[in-house]
Amino acid sequence: MNRTASTRPVTERLLPDAHGLARAACLLAEGGLVAFPTETVYGLGADGRNAAAVAALYAAKGRPSFNPLIAHVASLGGAEREGRLGPEAARLAAAFWPGPLTLVVPRAETGTVCDLARAGLDTIGLRIPAHPVARNLLALCGFPVVAPSANLSGRISPTRAEDVLGDLDGAIAAVVMGGATAIGVESTIVACLDGPPRLLRPGGVTREDIERRLGRPLEGAGEAADRPLAPGGLLSHYAPRARVRLDVAEILPGEALLTFAAFRPAGHSQARQVLDLSPDGDLAEAAANLFGYLRRLDASGAETIAVAPIPGRGLGEAINDRLRRAAAER
Length: 330
Ligand code: TXA
Ligand code: MG
Prior knowledge:
The protein is of the alpha/beta class. 29% of the residues lie in helices and 16% in strands. It is built from nine helices and 14 strands. The protein has helices at residues 18-29, 51-61, 76-82, 87-96, 132-141, 161-168, 207-214, 283-299, 316-327; strands at 12-14, 34-37, 42-47, 70-72, 101-106, 123-127, 145-146, 174-176, 188-191, 198-201, 243-245, 256-259, 274-276, 304-307. The strands form two sheets. Strands 1-8-2-3-7-4-6-5-9-10 form a ten-stranded mixed sheet, with helices on both faces. Strands 11-14-12-13 form a four-stranded parallel sheet, with helices on one face. Helix 1 (18-29) crosses helix 5 (132-141). 50% of the residues are buried. Threonylcarbamoyladenylate binds at residues 38, 40-41, 43, 67-70, 100, 102, 104, 118, 121, 123-125, 127, 147-149, 186-187, 189, 200-201, 230-233.
């Protein structure tokens, strides 16, 4: 074997083809950590049944271990083995799986995901992702793959394989190089436990679409977005190196500008760099660009990223949630 003096392990770059996915499934089954694309963001996967692999996952991310992980499965049968889907959870699953929705439900007796991955809770977060690479990988694995976003804890979530490598190269076994993710913000998390369904985190499925499907309003979030309802709802998150200033009407000297729908605040011509999330005012395009643009403005060297107002409807709820966390006191 051709080893260098460094003992830092090499992170394999895998193609999203049959050979690459077979290798990824094999590494996961052996307890390795493998990053892979989903339609929301890249996830850092581990075998959810394997507590040692899950411990290594928390360590690689630098994640507080009280924060439970989402278990990704290939099929409804796989989900039902891990969690008990009541009528409302089942309705949401039928409407939005595969897709960017995570359901928090009571753990099933037959569940295989280890205590550590659930942070000791008797509930479990479940998702069937829609991205074909993720689906094929999960089908090959046949076991639940727990996967947080594949970034260091607290930092910007990755929407490209290169972003994953920027944070985790040498710290994980492999990354499946699957191109940019389409949705760009994480899944919506809805808890279906006792009582009415609650929105724990806004995300890729809009509140409006979920409420239409349920035929009633969702409890929680909005006002609860800064309370750790989902244990991972820590306020400071998605943080670039630069400070973030929200709802700006005016650009101060040296600031970079993140704007929307061609809005130009006063003083914009002196901004270090200007990026428009969607010049046409399309919130889906804005969500897809959000994390990548935050990274680019951070790399501009500006001390502060000034963010123009973004509407709160539809995907705007998730966008504003992520921006509030990026701007929070650290
Ligand atoms: O789009 C996504 O959801 C991505 C991709 C990779 O699937 N994953 C993701 O994972 O965003 P992560 O770990 O960054 O966020 C998972 C969130 C955390 O806030 C965690 O607290 C919450 O899900 N969560 C997981 N299981 C839970 C449970 N049993 N009860 C409450 N919250 C839970
Ligand atoms: Mg995350």
